[in-house]
């Protein structure tokens, strides 16, 4: 198989991989993630921006896999204006060492409650930076954002992470209440992948 037809997503998060698979359809002959490479293990996110962490993940995996595939990383998270952009790059670890999605959502809702920020003042956005690499070379960087606000309480069952407390702009339901195809049309990840698809057709069009 030509290495450009083989895409490895530099994540162990199967939710991210599922969304990326749906959005890319049959563009690639094969899409795998790090679940297929347990020997690679967790890659430390020591960067101070989404871009730095995305690059770190893509290049680390690229170096380990050589030129046998192209690597796409996804570093993403939630920025809440009333919390000065937190949780930001610390989205996955927001509630501390043993953080999980539920404890992260609870901490976020508790903090907004504590400072008395409600309704329309809960302005937030999901941000996603993807880095495409082959070996130790960065081929391109793709950015995606979706604006919205934080709900007053958790709502909905689908999705993952902060989906049940994020209401995208123009909607009155959280990502976890909306059908997955709606999230996959407007999300930060969908926007970054739209730039990736444009790059695949014409690499000079995306800087
Ligand atoms: P990463 O693995 O460092 O990129 O962690 C991303 C963090 O942001 C995790 O806590 C995710 O749950 C959260 N996150 C990223 N994208 C989404 C999304 O599409 N929905 C909900 N949470 C997300």
Question: In terms of topology, how is this protein built?
Answer:
Layout: E1 6-9, H1 14-24, E2 30-33, H2 50-65, E3 70-80, H3 101-114, E4 123-134, E5 137-150, E6 166-168, H4 180-186, H5 188-201
Parallel strand pairs: 1-2, 1-3
Antiparallel strand pairs: 3-4, 4-5, 5-6
Helix pairs in contact: 1-5, 4-5
Bound molecules: inosinic acid.
Account of the protein in words:
With 207 residues, this protein is α/β, with parallel strands linked by helices. The chain has a single domain, classed as Maf protein. The chain has 5 helices and 6 strands. The chain has helices at 14-24, 50-65, 101-114, 180-186, 188-201; strands at 6-9, 30-33, 70-80, 123-134, 137-150, 166-168. It has a 6-stranded mixed sheet, with helices on both faces. Helix 1 (14-24) packs across helix 5 and helix 4 (180-186) packs across helix 5 (188-201). The longest helix has 16 residues, at 50-65. The site of inosinic acid (IMP) has 17 residues, from strand 3 and helix 3.
